[in-house]
Amino acid sequence: MDSQKTNHLEWIKIKESVWIHRSFGEFGGQIYSANGLVVLTNKGVVVIDTPWTESQTEELFTDIQSKFQKEVLYGIVTHAHDDRMAGVSLFQKRNIPIYSTSLTAKLAKEKGFGKTNPILDIQTRLAAGNQWIEVFYPGHGHSIDNIVVWLPDTGILFGGCLVKSFDAKDLGNTKEANLAEWENSLKRVLTRYPDAEVVVPGHGDWGKLDLLRHTIRLLVAANH
Predict the structure, then answer these.
(1) How many whole angstroms separate alpha carbon 137 and alpha carbon 121?
(2) Which of 21, 81, 203, 214 is catalytic?
(3) Which of 48, 117, 118, 163 could form a Cys-Cys staple with 201, CB 3.0–4.6 A?
(4) Is 173 assigned a catalytic role?
């Protein structure tokens, strides 16, 4: 993939009110894509995870304005890695609140990823105009702080990097993963959101709840 490609965002529509913003970054000398969400409401948009770089986050703000003519209400980050948080400082510059759990806030500070507002331990349901957004911490997995985001109005579950796409042949970056607990965390998500119609992984194409079962199969293989 050429570097031109990596500087630009891709937009993928899941439903009228929910889009994937797809950014690109380098890991181990290879280019990968990363998914975040933009949720449209009657009051503005909510951004789930920033793009992988600051320049792609600048583009995110420009695109939201031109595509949707809406302001960003707030952002949510699902764990303290750069493919989720690289653009946090740009939210701060614009005085847009960006929320995380206290564990993610602590890890982000240690890694120099910018400051988030750690409300998501206590406030797990957030209003966004005419919609609701729910966050759930299932336990350790891809990272010790990974959360998932549930959009009850559209039946969309953002699994983030806890969940692998169907074309994933392995678990990807497991440097901070807990391979022993990951499966239990996925099972908690399956139990809590059995009605999810769409599941969006951190990388790759979206699918259904089968993605969680696929990730469990990858874990079983990795743990044997």
Answers:
(1) 8
(2) 81
(3) 163
(4) yes
Please state, in angstroms and rounded to a whole number, the distance separating the CA atoms of residues 147 and 26. Answer: 23
Choose the catalytic residue: 63, 173, 184, 205: 173
Residues 165-208 have pLDDT tens digits of: 999 999 998 999 999 999 999 999 999 999 999 999 999 999 99
H-run or E-run covering 10: strand 10-15
pTM: 0.96
Q: Which residues of 129-145 are buried (b: 16+ CB within 10 A; e: fewer)?
A: bebebebebbbbbbbbb
Cα–Cα dist 73/29, whole Å: 35
Considering the candidates 21, 35, 79, 140, report the single residue annotated as catalytic.
79
**pLDDT tens-digit map of 14-37:** 999 999 999 999 878 888 999 999
Residue 142 annotated in active site: yes
Calculate the CA dihedral of residues 52, 80, 28, 60 and round it to 10 degrees. Answer: 0
- Which residues lie below 8 Å from residue 129, measured CB to CB, with a gap of 6+? 41, 42, 43, 44, 73
The verdict on whether 83 is a catalytic residue reads yes
Using DSSP, state whether 124 is helix, strand or coil. Answer: coil
Provide the H-helix boundaries in the chain: 3-7, 54-68, 82-85, 88-93, 102-111, 182-192, 210-222
- CB neighbour list of residue 60: distance below 8 Å, 6 or more residues apart: 9, 21, 23, 38, 47, 50, 51, 87
Selecting among 142, 145, 146, 214, the annotated active-site residue is 142
